[in-house]
Specification:
Layout lengths: L1 E4 L16 H14 L3 E4 L12 H14 L4 E4 L2 H4 L2 H8 L7 E5 L5 H10 L4 E5 L2 H9 L8 E4 L6 H17 L6 E3 L6 H11 L2 E4 L16 H11 L4
Parallel strand pairs: 1-2, 1-8, 2-3, 3-4, 4-5, 5-6, 6-7, 7-8
């Protein structure tokens, strides 16, 4: 499965084709489905363009993207969006539309957030950035409740990326973490980690949230173009 991460924390000042509004995200999702995407990760924004977890905005954006294509749509819960843990918990308590949500295990309040989302019936992708976070996940009691584990080391150079994700996989294997895994990178490590994901036979993610560049180093003109490149790496599956 290839998940498309359509915008992340970025805006049109970063790349002119980054989708921001619900309508732009919906149109982009349709194009990505044609390219081979089968799930979506979006960051809803207010009318002013600011990222938000507010329930009314989140539900409206997700509802619009879901109506545009047949695949599940999830959202992020990154601490940088709202900051305060209590505020994040309050916001997600009002969500009804997301098919899943991503929670970064290394952020304050992650376990409480996962539990609250489970109470709302919203499946969780647990984001693992480091080996220490993989060890934390193995030691926790939350694994059976997860939709999947996101193996997503950030800001790594190519030389270190594969070794680190390899160690994360070994920790999860040793801990008998059996829920599905999705692997992705960001920046210069994006494509080497997608190639590694293809070798391992695990799900992958790509999109403007992770990189603006194609495997050959040229700038991608759309999320769909990035998805097509990932499909090629995955062997056309």
């Amino acid at each position: 499965m290839i998940q498309a991460s359509l915008n992340g924390p970025f805006a049109k000042v970063d790349h002119p084709q980054v989708p921001a509004t619900a309508a732009e995200l919906a149109a982009d999702a349709r194009e990505c489905v044609r390219a081979g995407a089968q799930a979506f990760h979006v960051h809803p924004r207010t009318a002013s363009g600011a990222e938000t977890l507010a329930a009314d905005v989140t539900d409206e954006v997700v509802r619009t993207v879901k109506a545009s294509q047949p695949y599940p749509v999830g959202v992020g819960t990154g601490a940088w969006i709202e900051g305060d843990t209590a505020r994040r918990l309050d916001y997600v308590s009002g969500w009804s539309e997301p098919d899943f949500a991503s929670v970064n295990l290394g952020e304050e309040g992650a376990i409480e957030l996962i539990m609250r989302l489970n109470e709302r019936g919203i499946p969780v992708e647990a984001g693992v950035w480091t080996v220490a976070e993989a060890e934390f996940l193995v030691a926790s009691e939350i694994t059976p409740s997860l939709l999947r584990v996101l193996i997503e080391p950030v800001e790594l150079d190519v030389a270190r990326a594969v070794d680190i994700v390899g160690e994360i996989h070994r920790v999860l294997d040793h801990g008998r973490v059996e829920v599905p895994r999705l692997q992705h990178g960001d920046g210069e490590a994006t494509w080497v980690l997608l190639e590694d994901a293809a070798r391992r036979g695990v799900d992958m993610r790509v999109g403007f949230e992770d990189t603006f560049l194609l495997p050959d180093g040229t700038q991608a003109q759309s999320n769909a173009e990035l998805v097509r490149a990932a499909v090629e790496i995955a062997g056309g599956r």
